[in-house]
Amino acid sequence: DAKTTQPPSMDCAEGRAANLPCNHSTISGNEYVYWYRQIHSQGPQYIIHGLKNNETNEMASLIITEDRKSSTLILPHATLRDTAVYYCIVRVVGDYKLSFGAGTTVTVRA
Amino acid sequence: DAGVIQSPRHEVTEMGQEVTLRCKPISGHNSLFWYRQTMMRGLELLIYFNNNVPIDDSGMPEDRFSAKMPNASFSTLKIQPSEPRDSAVYFCASSYPGTGDTEAFFGQGTRLTVV
User: Fold this and answer.
1) Nearest of A45, A43, A44 to residue A59 by alpha carbon
2) Percentage of residues in chain A with pLDDT exceeding 70?
3) How far apart are CA B5 and CA B24, in angstroms?
4) Which of A93, A100, A102 sits opposite B100 (nearest CB)?
5) Which of A2, A18, A103, B87 could form a disulfide with A85 if both were Cys (CB 3.0 to 4.6 A apart)?
6) Which residues from B are below 8 Å from A44, CB to CB?
7) Alpha-carbon gap: A56 to the closest alpha carbon of chain B (Å)
8) Distances in Å between the alpha carbon of A6 and those of A10, A24, A73, A89, B34?
9) What CA–CA distance (Å, rounded) separates A19 from A12?
10) Is the pLDDT of residue B99 over 70?
């Protein structure tokens, strides 16, 4: 029972912004949106999370729609090292579980 | 801190043999997770420890799998006897005290091949 829907793959040009969409239409008020990524042959890496406000850190920005049914992860200036599988995860506040779906395979091209 | 440390990085073993995977979480973290990743099933949570106590082992496939956390700085995942279908990448992750909205730090994984 998938809680999030992501496109299976997308390409973006090096140096350009990469906008990764995620649908979570059944999200509850007590659920966060998390983003992780997994670079080939490495463990998943935390990127960012948010509840309802937009968030920004040194890696990315997270834009959550007002109804919270979808979000977009923005990598402001994609580099070749950003090529990875990106996972959008919905997680209940206070819960330990991270349920990974298939994610979006992002390929950054020179 | 060196991050979550897993060993070995690669393990090849014969069917029927015992396999032990090891994990050292980040110092100060009190939650530890074991995940398994395969092409078919993606990333699956096997077991979750909090303060060295197993809280949720519902993801452990069967009795051949067991996990222990004898202290805050060490955990093992054991498969006995191993089978070819156990071939996967096994990840250990840890997170720090606080509410559930904390990030998990993953190790580099152990790639297990059972022949």
Assistant:
1) A45
2) 98
3) 5
4) A93
5) A103
6) 43, 91, 93, 104, 106
7) 15
8) 10, 9, 11, 10, 25
9) 9
10) no
